[in-house]
Amino acid sequence: xxxxxxxxxxxxxxxxxxxxVPTGKVGKHNLVSGLDMLPTLCDLAGIPVPDTLxxxxxxxxxxxxxxxWKEAIFLNVDDNQQxxxxxxxxxxxxxxxxxxxxVLFDLQQDPGETKDLAKDPGLSAVISRxxxxxxxxxxxxxxxxxxxxxxxxxxx
Length: 156
Fold this sequence. Notes:
This protein has helices at residues 7-10, 37-45, 59-63, 124-140, and strands at 72-77, 82-87, 90-95, 102-106. The chain has four helices and four strands. It has 156 residues and is an alpha+beta fold. The model has no long low-confidence stretch (mean pLDDT 87).
């Protein structure tokens, strides 16, 4: 488990080599998580991927980084006190505290994650989309964090 939600701590390279894996390719834009490791290894080994796994095989993006892929990845951070939704452009962080419990970074404009945009009224649709992604993920995974979420004093 990660202790902080910043890219320097959570962005870990997913490096794979072997038969059937193209060489010399580097994909920097696909969202891949540790949950994708076992499905990928099963797929490349010709073993059926169990339906119960939350990740998915990266095989489609190994040869074509533009292939349809995930919209987001999710992380549990700081001993289950935070949840992170990482999309191609944004990082949304939901914290387990009574106020100021949402953080949003635009990783294209602010790769150093220095300017919190969560209260920017022009990004309300982005916040709503990331909240929904997180809520759907927490429901799918029966995440107990969902019961503790109180966004801006309004609950969810």
